[in-house]
């Protein structure tokens, strides 16, 4: 793009003269000729060539532009090249996951993190793969890093909360689940997980409240019905026990499981 100038997808529309404009949904690494298709693989190769030519990222190939476009290019031409390479690897990792090639996806994600350790998307994807594999301590590290980069990422926060609960740290998980519900109060599954955490922390009253909220939002939630049934049947406080309701909920959960 524009003889080697670097730009993001929202920047290309600003430069409408002096070069070829590619306005797709991906970062542009360099001018793309008819014989050099703009693929993810070529983007990586192009980025590496630019990095070799300009390791300090302080310079880029020069081209004559009208003054307004030149001013715009001065603002955007030196982007974080590592992040652009990382995004290319991320796209390939997404494709590998969709194609059922998790090992290839993990290698691509590791490369993305080498290119840019501050990539929130790469840290989140690695965390989810690790959590799926049961590598919970490593998953916690990457979920936490993703949240440091993008504090408002509710997927990462929910993932971290789930991992903390599986690691036997329900007290730490409670705050994360509550933060998700602050933004998504109607999320039934998160109410169930928060209820599980409260139950493990010896807070049956809070657990019952969240299980009931989950059932109100999702009447066919087997997890909510099972959790509430167990609480109502085993509450150490006799006044909290509801054997008839517990039986009804257990039967409802069994029906849902069929």
In short:
With 258 residues, the chain is mostly helical. Helices cover 64% and strands 0% of the residues.
Plain-language structure description:
By secondary structure, the chain is an all-alpha fold. The protein contains twelve helices and no strands. The longest helix is centred in the middle third of the chain and has 18 residues.
The low-pLDDT segments are: 1-65, 73-80
Radius of gyration: 25 Å
**Roughly what is the average pLDDT, rounded to an integer?**
76
> Which outline best applies?
elongated
Give the number of DSSP strands: 0
Category from helices, strands and their pairing: mainly alpha
Number of helices: 12
SSE ordering: HHHHHHHHHHHH
Measured by DSSP, the beta-strand proportion falls in under 5%
Largest sheet data: none
Report how far apart the termini are. 57 Å
Share of helix, binned: 55-70%
